[in-house]
Write a structure and sequence with these properties.
Length: about 240
């Protein structure tokens, strides 16, 4: 199975090179870095490290994920893995993430930091709370057994294409989950490690504006997913 890693990135020049290197050294054939209008050397450093760089000037985490996904599907991915550019997730856990898709046990695999390890100081208390609340809401509204809404995940390419993603904000990872549930695709969690970003400043949970925006989008998508707008026909299993 061809695994393609997609990395949405905004001004991560100090992190992107080592991250791409670590992904490639896991035997991943293609790492797609989406440069979301960085003003630093993110694109150059990603290219030097061996990534395929896709520019996406429209600012937004979802825009970047969508551009990377389109590229991954275009180059024939069977499984697409998403990982943040700041090296908070560990590329040596990609195999664990991809295994349930490869073995035909799930179509969407979520890296759960709650089931795994959160390094001291890697997740501020308000982010922990927001995440707990969102996961709780997801459990009660969708009747699914999830503990985390983190960005590190693997998805079957067929399911990804069918989900017709439209949320171009930090709500993208949540939209993927609610649409997968609505499409009755099998979704599982595996433990994942979360460490503090290697370099640079947080733009989301580390800032008030970023945190409020992220919470707004995540909760909004979770609620809207219960309306007809995000209903999808039942997904055909590929195994
Ligand atoms: N494409 C895109 N990525 C972003 C944006 N803001 C942050 N990111 C990326 O999203 C990830 C999470 O952001 P980060 O600053 O680490 O937030 P934190 O994990 O909450 O501290 C990182 O990989 C960032 O490079 C954005 O506006 N667009
Ligand atoms: Mg981060």
């Amino acid at each position: 199975m061809k695994v393609v890693v997609v990395v949405p990135a905004l001004n991560e020049a100090g992190n992107i090179g080592p991250l791409v290197h670590d992904c490639l050294s896991q035997g991943i054939p293609t790492v797609v870095v989406v440069d979301n209008g960085s003003t630093d050397a993110t694109a150059q450093n990603a290219t030097s490290a061996g990534a395929v760089v896709v520019p996406e000037p429209r600012r937004g985490y979802g825009y970047a994920c969508a551009a990377g996904s389109a590229k991954a599907l275009q180059i024939g991915a069977d499984v697409v893995v998403y990982i943040d550019a700041d090296h908070s997730s560990r590329p040596d856990e990609i195999k664990r993430l991809v295994a349930p898709v490869q073995q035909g046990q799930a179509l969407l695999v979520l890296g759960s930091r709650v089931k795994g390890t959160i390094q001291a100081g890697a997740m501020p208390p308000h982010q922990r709370f927001g995440n707990w609340l969102s996961a709780r809401l997801m459990r009660s509204l969708y009747n699914v057994d999830v503990t985390d809404l983190g960005p590190y995940r693997a998805i079957d390419a067929g399911l990804l294409a069918d989900l017709d993603m439209s949320e171009m904000t930090f709500g993208w990872p949540t939209e993927m989950m609610v649409k997968a549930v609505n499409a009755k695709a099998v979704m599982v969690e595996v433990p994942a490690t979360w460490v503090a970003r290697h370099e640079g400043r947080s733009k989301v949970s580390g800032t008030l504006v970023g945190s409020v925006k992220a919470a707004w989008y995540i909760l909004g998508v979770t609620m809207r997913g219960r309306t007809a707008k995000m209903q999808l026909p039942e997904f055909e299993r590929t195994w």
